[in-house]
Amino acid sequence: MTVLVRGLDVELGGRRVLRSVSMEVEGGSWTAVIGPNGAGKSTLLRAVLGLRDGQGMIAVSGRDVRSMRPRQRARLVAYAPQSPRLPAGMTVFDYALLGRSPYIPHFGRETAHDRSVTAEVLERLDLADLAARTLDQLSGGERQRVVLARALAQQTPVLLLDEPTTALDIGHQQQVMELVDRLRLADGLTVVSTIHDLTLAAQYADRLELLSDGRVAASGPPADVLTRDTIAAHFDANVSVSHDAEGRPLLALERPVRPGEGAAQ
Amino acid sequence: MTSAGPRSRLRGLAARPRRERRARREQRARLRAVQLVVALVALGASILGALLVGAAGLPVSGVLKALADTVPFVHLDSGLSVVEHNVLFELRLPRVLMAALVGGLLAIAGAGYQGVFRNPLADPYLLGAAAGAGVGATLAIVAFSSAPDFAVPVAAFTGAITGVLLAYGLGQVASRGGSGGGGTGTLVLAGVAVANFLSAVQTFLQQANSQQLQRIFAWVLGGVGTADWGQLRMVAPYALIAVVVLLTHGRLLDVLAVGDEEAATLGMSAARVRFLVLLAASLATACAVAVSGLIAFVGIVVPHLVRRLAGGSYRIVLPLSLLVGGAFLELADLVARTVVAPAELPLGVVTAFVGGPFFVLVLRATRRQVDV
Ligand SMILES: Nc1ncnc2c1ncn2[C@@H]1O[C@H](COP(=O)(O)OP(=O)(O)O)[C@@H](O)[C@H]1O
Ligand SMILES: [Mg+2]
Question: Could you read off the pLDDT of B226-240 as tens digits, one per residue?
C-alpha cells in the first residue's frame, strides 16, 4: 500500500512548517523521516493522518486521505504518536483494544473477534503477561510497546510511527525496531517512521527522507542521504561515516578539533 | 489490499486456551453483574429507608403494606388512614423518588463532564448550568410573586440550558481562530466567563428585589422538599433521554481519554462525542437544578467514589454513578429532614457539608493519578 505526498504545504500558527514536501513510499517498504528538531517530521506524519490541513496532495493507496471518513482512514493508517496520552488506570488490554475502535459502530461494543485480535497482538509483542496491568505501572520500554500494540490492533496496511525508540536504551531500541521490521516483513506493512538516531534509521529503513526547516533536503537510500556533508549542513554536526558489510552507513560523532588541542595527538 | 496478510495471520492464531480466556476477564475494565447488583440494592435500600422515616411518623408496617398493595395482583389492607395514605403517596413518595432522580442525574452528569474534559474535578455546573438556572429561577420568582408552581422549575430549566449553550457557543467562537480545532480549555474558560456573568446578573436581580430574598435563597440552597408528581412528570422525559444518551457513550468516552488527535486516528470524531455528551449531561443537570436548586458536590463525589471502588472505565462510572448518586442523595435528604426535626436542613447544605472535606480528599488522591 503506497503513501504518496506531493507538494505539501502546511502552515501552523502563521508559520510555514512544511514547504512543498514530496515523499513516495512504496508498499511494504520502510521509510524513515529524519531531520533536526523542529524540522517538521511529526507534522508530516500528522498530515498523512489527516490531522493537519494543508495544500498539496496526500494519498494512501491512491486515495486522498482528507476526503476519507475518519473510520475509513483509521482502517488504512495506524499511528503511534511521539508522546501518547496514556490514561492512568486503564489496563494494557483495554488500551490495545482501543485500536479496534475503527471497526466498532458508534453505539456498538467490541466483539469476541476484536478481543482475540487484541490478545493476539499482545502475545506477539510479548505483552500478554502485562495485559491486566494498568498503564501507569509500566516501564518506558513497555509503554512504547503498548502504544505499538494499539496501532497494530488496528490491522492497517500502513503504520506511522513517531519516534518509536526515544527514551529507550540501546537494547530496547533494537528490540522495537526488530519487532517492527519482522511485522513489516510478515504482514507486508508499509512503515513510515520518524527517528532521531540516524544510524538506527539507516539500519532499518529502505529510504530516508531528510527534512530540514520544512523542506525535503535529501531523500533516497540511506547511503546516499547520510553523508558527512549533508549531516554537517543540516544537523550542524561533525560526524564520520563508515559503512557496514551491507553498505549501510554507520555514524560516529567526532569531537571538533580546537586550536591548540588537536595537534598534540 | 496487502492487508490480507495481517488479518489472516491473526485469525489463524485466534483460538486460545481457556487459561487465557479466564485471565482476560480481569484485563478488561467492564461493569460486572455483582457491582450492578450491589449498587441497585444500595439504591433500593436507601429508597425504602427514606420511605419509612418522616415527620408524620407513619407506622412502618402500614407503610410496607401500603407499598406492597401497589404491586399488581397484591391486595393488602395497610391500615393507614386517608390522611396517612396521602402523606405517603402525595408527599413522601414523590420526594423520595425525586431525591433519587436528582442524585442520579447530577452524578451521571458529573461523570459525563469529567469524561469530556478528561478531568475528575469537572462538575456538572462547570459550563454555567447552575448560574443560568439561578438567573431563570430568580427571574421567575421576582417577576411574578404569585406564580404557578411550575414557573420556577421551567424558568430554571430554560436558564440552565441557555447558560450551557452560551458557554458552548462562546467557546466555539473563541477557539475558531486557533489551529487544531480548539481544545476543551477554551470551553472551560468560556464556561467560567458565562457562569460569572450570569451569577452577576442573578445577584443584581436578587439585590434589586430584596423582598423576595427568602424565596430565592430557599431555591438556591437546594432541596427536594417540595417535590410532587407534577414535577416528576415534567422532568422525567428529559431525564430519560439524557440518561440513555450518556449510558450509550461509555465506550466512546474511554476512547476520548487518549486525546482528540489520537481519537481521530482511531476513527472517532472527538468533537461530535463531546458535543453529544455535553448536551446530554447538561440536559440531566438542567432537569436536576430545575426541580431541586443547587446541590453541590454530588457530581464530583459520587463518580469519584465509583471510580475508586469499581474502576475507571466510563462503562462502569456512568451507570454506577447514576445508581450510587441516587442512593447518596437519598441518604443526604434523609439526614436533611431528620437531624434537626421537625425543622429541615437545606439539602445543598448537607451535601456541601459532606462534600467539602471529601473534595479535598479527592483532590489529594487525584493529584497523584492525573499527571501522565
Ligand atoms: N500546533 C502547532 N502550532 C504552531 N506551531 C507548531 C505546532 N506544532 C508544531 N509546530 C512547529 O512546527 C515545527 C515543526 O514541528 P514538528 O513537526 O513537531 O517537528 P519535529 O517533529 O521535526 O521535531 C516546529 O517549529 C514547531 O514549533
Ligand atoms: Mg517530532
Answer: 888 988 999 999 999
What does the domain layout of chain A look like in residue ranges? 3-76+156-264, 85-154
Q: How far apart, in whole angstroms, are the C-alpha atoms of residue B5 and residue A59?
A: 21
Q: Which amino acid is at B335?
A: V
List of long-range contacts for A174-181, beta carbons under 8 Å, 24+ apart: A175/A141, A176/A141, A176/A144, A176/A145, A176/A148, A177/A203, A177/A204, A179/A125, A179/A145, A179/A148, A180/A30, A180/A148, A180/A204, A181/A30
Which residue has the CA at smallest separation from atom 2 of ligand 1? Answer: A12
Whether the CB-CB separation of A43 and A70 falls below 8 Å is answered with no
Surrounding ion ligand 2 within 5 Å at CB are A 42, 82
User: Which among A12, A135, A187 is the nearest to B6, CB-wise?
Assistant: A187
CATH 3.30.1330.30 fits A3-76+156-264, yes or no: no
Looking at the structure, give the CATH architecture of the domain made up of residues B95-371: Orthogonal Bundle (1.10)
C-alpha B118/C-alpha B96 separation (Å) is 32
User: Of chain B residues 268-307, which have a CB less than 8 A from chain A?
Assistant: 268-269, 307
Whole-complex ipTM: 0.90
B295 close to B220: Cβ distance less than 8 angstroms: no
A262 — pLDDT class (breaks 50, 70, 90): low
- For chain B, the domains span 95-371
Could you tell me how many residues make up chain A? 265
Cβ of A40 below 6 Å from ligand 1: yes
Q: Does B369 touch chain A (CB under 8 A)?
A: yes
- Indicate if ligand 1 lies below 6 Å from the C-beta of A144: no
Q: How many CB atoms lie within 10 A of CB B89?
A: 15
Query: Residue A11 phi/psi, 5° resolution?
Result: -115, 130
Instruction: Measure CB to CB from residue B179 to each of A12, A49, A136 and give the nearest one.
Output: A12
d(CA B319, CA B248): 10
> What integer pLDDT is reported at residue B188 of this predicted model?
87
Tell whether B185 lies on the interface with A, counting CB pairs under 8 A.
Answer: no
**Residue length of chain B:** 372
What is the reported pTM?
0.86
